[in-house]
DNA sequence: TAATCCCGTCACAAACGCGTCACACCCTTG
DNA sequence: CAAGGGTGTGACGCGTTTGTGACGGGATTA
């Protein structure tokens, strides 16, 4: 599976869940003194604060390393300030990496996305083709029969979602969800506008109109 | 390439060779006043003592940075004591990192093992071409379709980093990291200015605008 | 020491993305 | 054919992101 499990000792997780569009690829969970609350499969990434409730972050770090269930996790220590002594201690306690806090969403996401792309390179999932359409996740670029499609970020996500679900009617609600839009709630009519814009972009690249309207249901990406 | 080449100004190398089991992953060599005795491929890590035989460690550090064959090395300064003034000087001289000495085997291994996983794969190639762009590491010169691009040092590194990661969205954080700027922390907006300057230089050499902005993500070096 | 170069930051204007609205058009149903 | 709901799309406005000239400090050179 392709999912990366992210554990944090802070509350940043909830905020990230809203922020990350690509929910299927990530899970977030709280890392308490007893370790992760649930056990997961797949690669794990832990961000450990230097100070936690009752427990020093270093101790948490050692416990993660000692526990066979989590010993493979990629551990990033969050230091409050840039003390070289602390950095050294963090590394010695088993951390792979550190950031100078406070932990921000972008700090987490940059790292996670970087990891993801590194993994993607291994699994070669960063590029896939559906019919004449090819999608390059690394370059964030789509092509129709080799011709680049000029897309804005939201349109790119939309097209990607269609490409991953070809020949299947997607309701407006599914599309809104699939693009990870939760707050604020999106008017379903807005999807119509998305579709219109995406169609125009595909046509401009020489593609036909692979997006078929299914009246009172939604839209399908027709693969012939 | 999976091998990390470690250079030391002290004799610790021999001792480490005995200590490290997994010899295939590391090579050790002495770093003398004239730099590394042999040229290597793959990532390099240099531990530079504050005082060397005839040469100040700072000078060694600068030479490593100035020499295109070693400019990518990860340089750790070894300070005898924790003098903040010295730390500042070390970082200014181009060190990525420092330890408060004396250098021990575990200090070396902790760092190397921790960071090895995220060592970017870098070709030690002296000259390579990407599309119309050619980069000559020895002459520190870039050309677009044969036309020289006038670049300042920082811009050269930036372009080089893009050339090594074509068709891949690079976040501002990745770029800052990729240019080896860790201390002091660089404002992400600064990257915008780098990009602007680099674009101007490329355009002046007759190149188009191969650097595409991906809004709210970063920049891509677009090939074809 | 003076002159010059390099580079990080700032501030502000411009460009951009996107959700919504309004209205015309389309299709279905009776 | 009429009625009514479903869909396409141009226009608008807001908030955010990006580009860039200007500035100043540090380093380098003359």
Task: Tell me what you see in this structure.
2 copies of one chain form a homodimer. With 224 residues, chain A is of the alpha/beta class. Chain A folds into 2 domains: 4-123, 3-Layer(aba) Sandwich (Rossmann fold), CATH 3.40.50; 127-221, Arc Repressor Mutant, subunit A. Helix content of chain A is 36%, strand content 25%. The first copy, chain A, has helices spanning 12-19, 57-66, 84-92, 105-123, 153-164, 172-178, 189-204, and strands at residues 4-8, 26-32, 35-36, 44-49, 74-79, 97-100, 127-130, 133-136, 141-144, 147-149, 170-171, 211-214, 218-221. A 6-stranded mixed sheet of chain A has the order 3-2-1-4-5-6, sandwiched between helices. In chain A, strand 7 (127-130) and strand 8 form a beta hairpin. In chain A, helix 5 (153-164) packs across helix 7 (189-204). The model of chain A is unreliable at 117-125 (pLDDT under 50). The structure holds a DNA duplex (30 and 30 nucleotides).
Supply database-style keywords.
homodimer, 224 residues, alpha/beta, Arc Repressor Mutant, subunit A, 6-stranded mixed sheet, 4-stranded antiparallel sheet, 13 strands, 25% strand, DNA-binding
In short:
The structure is a homodimer of 224-residue chains. The first copy, chain A, is an alpha/beta fold and 224 residues long.
């Amino acid at each position: 599976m392709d999912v990366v499990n992210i554990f944090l000792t802070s509350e940043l997780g909830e905020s990230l869940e809203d922020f990350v569009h690509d929910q299927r690829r990530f899970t977030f969970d709280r890392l308490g003194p007893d370790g992760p609350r649930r056990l997961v499969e797949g690669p794990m990434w832990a961000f450990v604060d230097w100070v936690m409730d009752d427990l020093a972050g270093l101790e948490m770090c050692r416990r993660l390393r000692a526990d066979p269930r989590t010993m493979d996790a990629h551990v990033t220590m969050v230091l409050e300030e840039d003390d070289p002594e602390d950095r050294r201690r963090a590394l010695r306690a088993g951390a792979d990496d550190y950031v100078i806090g406070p932990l921000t969403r972008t700090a987490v996401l940059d790292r996670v996305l970087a990891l993801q792309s590194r993994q993607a390179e291994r699994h070669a999932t960063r590029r896939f083709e559906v019919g004449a359409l090819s999608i390059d996740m690394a370059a964030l670029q789509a092509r129709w029969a080799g011709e680049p499609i000029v897309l804005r970020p939201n349109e790119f996500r939309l097209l990607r979602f269609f490409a991953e679900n070809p020949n299947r009617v997607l309701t407006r609600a599914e599309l809104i969800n699939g693009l990870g839009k939760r707050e604020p709630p999106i008017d379903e009519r807005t999807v119509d506008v998305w579709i219109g814009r995406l169609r125009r972009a595909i046509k401009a690249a020489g593609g036909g109109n692979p997006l078929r309207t299914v009246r009172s249901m939604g839209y399908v990406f027709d693969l012939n």
